[in-house]
Amino acid sequence: MVRSKILTALAAACTVAVGLSACSSGKEQAADNGGQPVSGKISISFLQKQGDQEYFVGEAAGAQAKAKELGIDLKVVNLGNDANKTVSEVNAAIAQKANGVIIVVPDPAVGPQVVQAAKAGGVTLLTADDQICVDGTDPSKCAKDKLVPRIGFSGAQMGGEVGKRAGEEFTKSGWAVEDTAIISAWKQDVTVCTDRVNAAKAAFKSGTGKDVKSIDVGTDNSATSAQDKVAATVTANRAVKHWVVWGCNDENVSGGVTALQNAGYTADNVIGVGLGAYLACKDWGSGKPTGMKAALFINGYEVGALAVQTMFDKLRNGKDMPAEAFAPTKMVDAGTWKEAGVKCSA
After folding, report:
1. Beta-bridge mates of residue 214
2. Which of 56, 153, 203, 269 would you label with 304, given CA atoms 20 to 30 Å apart?
3. Is residue 42 pLDDT above 50, yes or no?
């Protein structure tokens, strides 16, 4: 999902169906497995990793609402983080005569098996959020005509917004560079996460003009993992007085901020910028001081709706699916999250 500045500009400038602000890359993909348009009832399986996370709960809700509007039979399945279940559920969708499969893969490595199964079963395939490559190549290095069409967000754009806001908060803080360190926390084999983190680093450096010590922390993208890994990182870097934290999602940042708080760092010595806002808003709603200074609101509901609309257009009308289509994002903080419509995780 490495995108150029031109693509980012396009993403902000164009509009796709279902009333969502989105944009394709302009190049259609050959990795689609669709056949002739479907004239009867359309059946789609929506397979999601980590379906209990607030973002994916919203994504499923958006998919279900759009499916109801379009008269589609939609089955939503939570894959958790199970790569084996991913393949078995694709095969189950084929056995149940689904016309299409929309999938958020737990692991990009399972992509080729998913693609092969869909192709063999004559099922149209569309990915949401994370990319997969038809030949098993790391999606960041995959030839563009080998990527399965995808609905989601631009990692470069999202990470850039996070890094920009973190840079603004850092400049406002007046912290000395030598007393500060940045933690980037993410599951390091997930390409879209790496895209986000790299873009955040570049935007922070560009905005501040400062070389702040940066520490990469590998997690499984859960808050618990982030808290544990960041706690160990802090223990090994006790000389650091101030911390900046970002990552692939809200879980990484929330876990990191919690670890710093438990290590004795006060809220005014931590700058956390989340990605999702569904956990960040819980801190803001408490009314207590927090190191979570802002978060980029990404609305899973819109991605789910756009994915179903895109699949419907392909199955019913034979409309080519775009290489990528992006839903909009918005930076929020303690003073703006409610107005933006952020829903906090339970």
Report:
1. 182
2. 203
3. yes
- The pLDDT score that the predictor gives to residue 54 is 83
When the pLDDT of each residue in the chain is averaged and rounded to a whole number, the result is: 88
The pLDDT value recorded for residue 216 is: 98
Instruction: Please give the Cα distance from 151 to 321 (Å, whole number).
Output: 10
Angle, vertex CA 92, rays to CA 122 and CA 80, nearest 5: 120
In 174-290, alpha helices (H): 191-208, 223-235, 250-262, 280-286
The answer to whether the CB of 311 falls within 8 A of the CB of 75 is no
Residue pair 247/313 in contact (Cβ under 8 Å)? The answer is: no
CA 174 to chain centroid: 31
**Coil, helix or strand at residue 36:** coil
pLDDT band of 35, cuts 50, 70, 90: low
- Cα separation, 107 vs 130, in Å, equals 9
DSSP 8-state assignment for residue 226: H
pTM, two decimal places = 0.72
Instruction: Provide CB contacts within 8 A for 69, sequence distance 6+.
Output: none
What are the tens digits of pLDDT across the range 119-170?
999 999 999 998 888 876 777 777 888 889 999 988 899 999 999 999 999 9
The widest CA-to-CA distance across the chain, in whole angstroms, is 66
Q: Is the dihedral of CA 215, 208, 298, 253 positive or negative?
A: positive
Extract the tokens encoding 332: 């929020």
